[in-house]
Amino acid sequence: MTSLILASASPRRLALLQQLGYAPEVLPVAVDETPRAGEAPDALARRLAHSKALAAAAIHPQDTILAADTVVALGSHLFGKPRDADDAARMYRALGGVWHQVHTAIALSHRGQITLRLCDSAVRLRVLSTAEMRAYWETGEPADKAGAYAIQGFGAVFVSAVQGSYSGVVGLPLFETAECLAACGLPPPCLSGHA
């Protein structure tokens, strides 16, 4: 019997899977996340999700592996995790008042095959004041988030609009994830018995 393994240390991805009734084993894997020269943001998300799934499948080849990667971008410019408060402020100034893209790719390894899906969403942050930038940074929330904000946390107060998948912006698009898992014989447990 195969089991579901989440190849991610993200508590947000785990919580989203649990929301659907899954209880995956968590197996974080380390891959080099350095973008390649000229690599498009969506291509980066796909490549990293694929690499994470491969790395976890090498450890647990008989299990179903779910991996994901989220990339925040404004055009071709990437916004990774901020180095410090100044770097976060630079991101807020660039992203404030304009639409930016959030690309989340999922990779599912099942019986030696890897399925890739990409979810593209657009997010608009309002313009933040310097005091707001400082106060938000001091909550600790932005430090490990691509784009230096968390739509599911305190950062929600700065998000004026979202087009696309909210869960995809959080880090795991549930529609695409549920479809892929169902195709592997693992439909969402929250729906079992109600089909």
Automatic annotation (TrEMBL):
One GO biological process term: nucleotide metabolic process
Site (Important for substrate specificity) location in chain: R12, T70, Q152
GO CC terms: cytoplasm
Domain of life: Bacteria
Localization: Cytoplasm
Cofactor: a divalent metal cation
GO molecular function terms listed in the Swiss-Prot or TrEMBL record: nucleoside triphosphate diphosphatase activity
InterPro entries in the record: ITPase-like_fam (IPR029001), Maf-like (IPR003697)
Keyword annotations from UniProtKB, A to Z: Cytoplasm, Hydrolase, Nucleotide metabolism
EC number(s) stated in the UniProt entry for this protein: 3.6.1.9
Active site location: D69
Role, per record: Nucleoside triphosphate pyrophosphatase that hydrolyzes dTTP and UTP. May have a dual role in cell division arrest and in preventing the incorporation of modified nucleotides into cellular nucleic acids.
Name the UniProt record assigns to this protein: dTTP/UTP pyrophosphatase
Originating species: Acidithiobacillus ferrianus
